[in-house]
Amino acid sequence: MATQDEPFRTTVPGELVVDLEHLGLIETELAALDVDHSVKETHELLGLALLSGFGESEAALDGVLHELRRRFSGRFGGWFPELGKQRVADLVRPAGPKPMSEGLPEPADPVVIPTPEAGGPTVRVGVVDTPVYHHESLPEEWVTADEWGTGVPDVPRAGHGTFVTSLIRQGAPRAHVSVRGALKGLENTADAWDAAVAIVELGQRVDLLNLSFAAYTEDGDAPLVIRRAIERVPSGVLVVAAAGNHGDVIGLVRGRTSRSPSYPAAMPRVVAVGSSGLIGSTGGKVEPGSATLSEFTPKLPWVDRTTRGVAVTGAVPGGWATWSGTSFAAARVTGLVADQMATAGVSAADALELIESLVPVFEWTGEA
Fold first, then answer.
1. pLDDT tens track of the chain, all 368 residues?
2. For the Peptidase S8/S53 domain, which residue ranges apply (predicted)?
3. In terms of Cα–Cα distance, which of 95, 91, 94, 113 is closest to 103?
4. Domain-wise residue ranges, the chain
């Protein structure tokens, strides 16, 4: 039974994200404090700068943040420029004590995705996830990527982006999906800065964004860089995100409890999607058709919609599989919305309302 935190970092050591407009002011104050640092990167669309070189100690970084805010607040009547820690964006992976905790895909029979007729309407969908791999269900005329994975990955979760993309295409064969493979490495994580850059850049050229990853913070506030990215996605773009798989966490696991907000899902303009369908407590029995909320879905007021996220079938590198999680519930919602946009010729917001029977509004009962 999971009752205490596993080794997992929620911050990137020695890095701060600060408002680009006030970068000069912040650097002047850092110089006055005799704090060494460097400007690692700036991004105009985000309006932010990434500073590094503050050392490996999180306590020291906390001290720098506290002192900067104290000094600015004292000089400017309580105001201080926006600044915060660089965070980690993680795959929405299992965190609870149930059999689903391993959360790995199981082999399955193929799914046929119909080939759309030429000349019909196309909906543009953006996905920020792990790199997508070549697959028969993901023809390059309908899927583009900043980079394609090669071979079959050693880590099954590296196929997450491939699986998510195939679910969107199953729901909406007329969706053209652009994938930014920001989450990489053995842990399939990213610096939140890289995820945010992918969000804001993709958001300028798509109709829908699917975000099946999450960042968590100790104080429950949205990471500055993720919040800014979502704020700067054009208002007509619908953002769909996985609510997280930590609803059945006991204690503190991987930096979160059962009540932790996951970002970007918990942000106001984002459609946070939870999973329905149950995985039995013994023998891994699956009840995918159940409308009951999945145990691993957070029971929290910022969750907006639910749909089936258990034993969903999709593509993985080298084959097909079933997989469970709110990541895949979110991808199914994105596909359903995209399909309605293409067939009914409506906006993303109107399309979401048209599919309410398949994607019901989550009614929070007041209990987590």
1. 344 455 567 889 999 999 999 999 999 999 999 999 999 999 999 999 999 999 988 899 999 999 999 999 999 999 999 999 999 998 877 655 544 444 689 999 999 998 887 778 899 999 999 999 999 999 999 999 999 998 878 788 999 999 999 999 999 999 999 999 999 876 788 899 999 999 999 999 999 999 999 999 988 999 999 999 999 999 999 999 999 999 998 887 777 889 999 999 999 999 999 999 987 644 445 566 667 899 999 999 999 999 999 999 999 999 999 999 999 999 999 999 999 999 999 999 999 999 998 899 998 877 66
2. 122-339
3. 94
4. 11-87, 90-354
Distances (CA, A) of 142 to 6, 125, 128, 239, 323: 40, 10, 16, 20, 23
Q: Where are the alpha helices (DSSP H) in 102-174?
A: 160-171
Distance CA 278, CA 265 (A): 22
What whole-number distance in Å separates Cα of residue 182 and Cα of residue 194?
A: 6
Q: Which residues are catalytic?
A: 129, 160, 327
CA distances from 154 to 68, 186, 315, 338 (A): 44, 9, 16, 32
| The domain over range 90-354 is classified in CATH as 3.40.50.200 | yes
Integer Cα distance of 326 and 214 in angstroms: 11
Decide if 11-87 and 90-354 have a common fold: no
CB 12 within 8 Å of CB 191: yes
Cβ atoms 196, 244 nearer than 8 A: no
* Cα 320 to Cα 323: distance, rounded to the nearest angstrom: 10
Strand ranges inside 222-367, DSSP E? 238-242, 270-276, 278-279, 286-287, 305-308, 312-316, 319-323
